[in-house]
Design brief:
Layout lengths: L1 E10 L5 E4 L17 E2 L8 E8 L6 E14 L2 E12 L4 E15 L5 E7 L4 E6 L2 E19 L2 E16 L2 E19 L2 E16 L6 E23 L9 E9 L1
Parallel strand pairs: 1-14
Antiparallel strand pairs: 2-15, 3-4, 4-5, 5-6, 6-7, 7-8, 7-9, 8-10, 9-10, 10-11, 11-12, 12-13, 13-14, 14-15
Length: 256
């Protein structure tokens, strides 16, 4: 049986843009998702974000890009959310379609801090194709705990989550890939800026019993993603100057 082990170094994905917008709320925790990817905060259309994520199923890091659609409803302190991912990488003939269903329960402590616990309400649907191989999610367990500390003018968030997923390769239950993820979350939000940071440790274990000879290998990766949003008001002088007012103020907002 062939065995192997590898380690993949830190991966950092950065997206940036600059645009002029009317005043609105900045990022809320969760726009990155909980899969180790990163999204551009501004929506391309209703509930949809540009999104990128590293895939490690083959043992080689593959950058997948596409869209993340987040739909949330909040009722009686319980938030239900559906995350839909549609990602590709033409260079590797890779595609991912994933739908994840979350439920978050909130409670408020006497000191005003808010605790949140998130679980999956049912098995996510996920199929990844890379070249001639197809990976189908057959088992998943996810839990997330979060503490929000609201203060005047600013909110702080900190928490952690774990995720375990098992895939079958080519529809054969004898050939599996197991992915374990442990992550930490940090975030703050105020009127002029907000930030979200995720630090994830990922292990991948592949067991192909029906290969000839059987193949077993494993590896690990560390992924750090961070998204920071800022906005400011800048004075812009008019040209020409022979008019009734000298200039005006423009509110600008950007994400790194």
């Amino acid at each position: 049986m062939r065995k192997g082990y590898m380690r993949i170094l830190t991966v950092l994905l950065v997206t940036a843009f600059l645009m002029t917008l009317p005043a609105e709320a900045l990022a809320y925790e969760g726009t990155l998702g909980y899969q180790g990817g990163i999204s551009i905060e501004n929506k391309t259309k209703k509930d949809e974000y540009q999104y990128s994520e590293m895939c490690f199923l083959t043992g080689k890091p593959i950058l997948l890009t596409g869209t993340l659609t987040v739909k949330k409803t909040d009722k009686n302190g319980i938030t239900t959310a559906t995350y839909t991912y549609k990602l590709t990488n033409p260079d590797y003939n890779a595609n991912m379609n994933r739908v994840v269903f979350y439920q978050t329960t909130k409670s408020t402590k006497p000191n005003g801090q808010i605790t949140e616990v998130t679980t999956q309400t049912r098995l996510p649907t996920e199929v990844v194709t890379i070249g001639n191989n197809s990976y189908k999610l057959t088992s998943s367990s996810f839990t997330r705990s979060m503490l929000k500390d609201p203060k005047p003018a600013i909110n702080y968030d900190a928490g952690e989550f774990t995720d375990k997923k098992i895939y079958t390769i080519g529809g054969d239950s004898s050939n599996t890939v197991t992915v374990n993820v442990s992550g930490k979350l940090y975030a703050y939000e105020q009127y002029w800026s907000s930030t979200q940071t995720q630090k994830l440790n990922i292990t991948v274990d592949t067991n192909m019993k029906k290969a000839s000879p059987p193949i077993q290998w494993g590896g690990s990766a560390e992924v750090i993603v961070a998204s920071t949003s800022r906005q400011q008001i800048q004075y812009s002088k008019n040209e020409p100057t022979q008019i009734s007012f000298d200039g005006g103020y423009v509110q600008k907002r950007w994400t790194e």
